[in-house]
User: Fold Molybdopterin-guanine dinucleotide biosynthesis protein A from Mycobacterium tuberculosis.
Amino acid sequence: MQTDAEVVLPWDGRNHYLAAVYRTDLADRVDTLVGAGERKMSALVDASDALRIVMADSRPLTNVNSAAGLHAPMQPGR
Assistant:
């Protein structure tokens, strides 16, 4: 799939900003937002041409914070 979107954002009922793909030409927009005191990734996405990709199976987006979490069985869906 090809797109002209500036951000491609996985979504499964919530946005997954760390798993998104961002165009490098957004760097100036990031600088402007940070300079204005903005720190939320949602502000960048809202200020960009974003394409949300619906992830019916959210297992690939599972957040792992420990070795135990890495080996825990993943449940289908959420």
User: Anything to note?
Assistant: Residues 7-56 form one domain. The first strand starts at residue 7 and ends at 11.
